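User: For my dataset I need records formatted as: sequence, then structure tokens, nothing else. Please produce one.
Assistant:
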Amino acid sequence: MPNATEQRSHNVALPEGCGPVYNEEAFRYFLQVERKRASRSNSRFLLLLVDLKRDAQQSADFDAPMGARLFASMLPCLRETDFIGWYRQGRVASAVLTQVGETPGVEVSNLVADRVRDALAQSLSSNLASRLQVRVYQVPAMTDGRS
């Protein structure tokens, strides 16, 4: 049975029409489906991870209202084809940006990360936004020397 923290973090309510915030199990399932699709089509996608740092070494938990604000703040940076959810339940919020082309490049990853950081800084308290770590990964990772 999930503990109280896990139950709270599942219940992220977004404005109507925004689509679901998947729990960790569902998010990882859809992430695996997207990996397979990208592999079959020889394409890449971006994986966006946002976690709250208690300090330089440790992550903190998002409570349900904070998680809802975080996901709602990320939405304007995403498209209808992208999906959001918990990469680590209550600890790491995530989004998969699908169909970004065969070679999105480091510039696109940096642009997405900057756009999300700006959106979070504008819509969340400065104390909270300053403790968020935003990372964007290209999946599958580029291995042929291109950046």
